[in-house]
Write a structure and sequence with these properties.
The complex is a heterodimer of chains A (255) and B (283).
Chain A lengths: L1 E12 L2 E7 L1 H6 L5 E5 L10 E4 L2 E3 L2 E7 L3 H7 L6 E8 L11 E6 L6 H10 L4 E7 L8 H5 L3 E6 L6 E2 L3 H10 L4 E5 L2 H13 L4 E4 L15 E3 L5 E3 H4 L2 E3 L10
Chain B lengths: L15 E3 L12 H6 L2 E3 L16 E4 L2 E4 L8 H14 L4 E5 L4 H11 L6 E5 L3 E2 L5 E2 L4 H12 L5 E5 L6 H11 L3 E4 L3 E8 L5 E8 L4 H12 L6 E4 L5 H9 L4 E4 L1 H5 L3 H15 L1
Parallel strand pairs in B: 1-2, 1-14, 2-5, 5-6, 6-9, 9-10, 10-13, 13-14
Antiparallel strand pairs in B: 3-4, 4-12, 7-8, 11-12
Classes of the chains: A alpha/beta (255), B alpha/beta (283).
């Protein structure tokens, strides 16, 4: 863990925050898809740093997009400019980068977080992209204007308050019936990942799922962030992921 | 720090050991972190590979971590051929944590590893003894006596028994000492539970509690046991600062292990050592 400072913190919507941390040494090495562990409190409770995907890197700063979910993220949400934090990373494997596009991204809720950084990388490499972006309601869809500068967006909400009503996998399947991208990459809740994994395999498109699991060390020491592997055994999200080929994952066991 | 001569049969450059199952097999830690430890205690190794437990394997408690990894490991053959040579190359003495479900399994593990250059063994007695209807060795002082006696026929070098903090701890400690153990690791995690889902269909996570939450409990255990046994105690329980380690030494420990602190920050072992060094010089 290294010492760093908060540059800005901004509330984007109820329960959603954008935290910018001044950490040039980490920012310089960061690649899209990787994650960092952050602690913004001095007490031993909560004990563990929290893992976050990297939303964006700009001028030696790391930008994290997160949702308040528990005691750790609640504490982070109270941090202000200049406050000290400890940061560890970058950790995990970067997202795969295909030779050719297009790349279709599927996000569920806060699962959109790592896609801004990745979309920037896709653009640098001249690869076109689409973002299927689902949430419960309109407040869950974040930074739409920013995302729309980098990809064609298909917004979807379960309550229909923005974009298509229903689940994000419905427009994804409709699109797959017409075209096939070079790669699908999904990040979101387990039910969505399972559905996207099945679609990717059904339509024979290479599909990566960015997995989430309770994590302690973030670097393969504790074997805590286990996800059942297809054919037996367990994947470790921190070192084999976060994004893994859907065919590696026991989709039925995703919870 | 001067060479640490508090543990006979084990040549340590300092009293800090990396605890079993908290540093992988070193592949994701820097060489500096690994080389700085007094000793490396391997992940628990069984005769056959073990897949480990299904998720969730982790939950948090106030100032603590609950884990149920389920002793995932590649088994003796892969460990010996593919992993151990690298562990031995890190520098510090390597203690292999062994786990079996019967006395014979433990014996075969020691047989398979005694000529490989390992500095010794840490015997995990928290697993169930299948031959005894699944009761943990740690609840059966006579079973521990027979187990350690049996291993002593195979191995005359350093051998520590990792005690469970629950059960007849004192009787087990005395049985291990009488059977010829070189030291006792005090202690493993505490059986604990976290409610991970509330409501009509609650879900529970059962595992072992580690971290700062358990330090006062294990400190007491070390204090009590140090008055009962003559062999050295290696403390293990929530050490996250030099002061924590120092307190264990004051309570009778002769070396100590760091585990959960390394998971939080891989820089922790070296920080703990330098803090302890300063405390020992002051006093």
């Amino acid at each position: 863990m290294i010492a760093a400072r908060v540059y800005t913190q901004r509330r984007l919507a109820p329960g959603y925050f954008l935290l910018t941390i001044e950490a040039p040494a980490v920012a310089e090495k960061a690649r899209p898809g990787q994650f960092v562990r952050v602690r913004g409190w001095y007490s031993r409770d909560p004990l563990l740093p929290r893992p976050f995907s990297i939303h964006e890197v700009a001028e030696g700063r790391l930008v994290l997009l997160y949702q308040v979910r528990g005691p750790g993220t609640r504490r982070l949400s109270h941090l202000r400019r200049g406050d000290p934090v400890e940061i560890d990373g970058p950790l995990g494997r970067p997202f795969p980068l295909p030779e050719e596009g297009p790349v279709w991204l599927v996000a569920g809720g806060i699962g959109v977080a790592p896609f801004l950084f990745y979309l920037q990388k896709l653009r640098e490499n001249g690869l076109s992209a689409r973002l299927f972006y689902g949430g419960r309601r309109r407040d869950d869809l974040l930074r739409l204007r920013r995302f729309s500068t980098l990809a064609g967006i298909v917004p979807v909400t379960e309550d229909g308050s923005r974009g298509r009503p229903g689940l994000v996998t419905v427009p994804l399947e409709e699109a797959l019936q017409k075209n096939r991208p070079a790669l699908i990459l999904a990040c979101g809740p387990p039910g969505m990942l399972r559905a996207v994994g099945r679609l990717g395999e059904l339509y024979r498109v290479p599909t990566y799922l960015s997995l989430e699991a309770m994590m302690a060390c973030g670097r393969g020491l504790c074997l805590g962030c286990a996800v059942p592997r297809r054919g037996g055994g367990y994947l470790k999200v921190c070192v084999e992921g976060p994004a893994v080929d859907s065919r590696e994952v026991d989709l039925e066991a995703l919870v | 720090m001067k060479p640490w001569s508090e543990i006979p049969d084990l040549s340590l450059t300092n009293p800090l050991m990396l605890a079993s199952g908290t540093w992988g097999f070193g592949e994701n830690l820097s060489r500096e972190v690994l080389a700085s430890a007094g000793a490396l205690v391997s992940k628990g190794i069984s005769l056959n590979p073990r897949p480990g437990n299904p998720p969730p394997r982790l939950s948090e408690a106030p100032c603590g971590l609950i884990n149920s990894i389920g002793l995932e490991n590649p088994g003796l053959a892969v460990f010996r051929e593919k992993i151990l040579p690298r562990l031995l190359s890190y520098g510090p003495p390597v203690l292999v944590n062994i786990l079996g479900e019967s006395e014979e399994e433990f014996v075969r593990l020691v047989e398979g590893l005694r000529k490989t250059g390992v500095a010794g063994f840490e015997v995990n007695i928290s697993c169930p003894n299948v031959k005894k209807g699944g009761i943990a060795f740690a609840r059966d002082p006579e079973g521990v006596f027979r187990l350690i006696r049996g291993l002593r026929d195979q191995w005359g070098g350093f051998l520590t028994v990792k005690l469970s903090p629950v059960g007849p701890v004192e009787e087990v400690a005395l049985a291990a000492e009488e059977a010829g153990a070189s030291a006792l690791t005090c202690a493993n995690t505490y059986p604990a539970l976290a409610v991970v889902q509330e409501g009509r269909h609650p879900r529970f996570h059962l595992g072992g509690l580690s971290g700062p939450a358990i330090k006062p409990l294990t400190l007491r255990l070390v204090y009590e046991l140090s008055r009962k046994v003559r062999i050295p105690l290696i403390a293990s329980g929530g050490i996250s600062s030099g002061r924590d380690a120092y307190e264990y030494l004051l309570c009778g420990a002769r070396a100590f292990q760091v585990g959960t602190a390394t998971l939080i920050d891989p820089g922790a072992p070296r920080r703990i050592l330098s803090e302890l060094d300063a405390l020992l010089k002051d006093r």
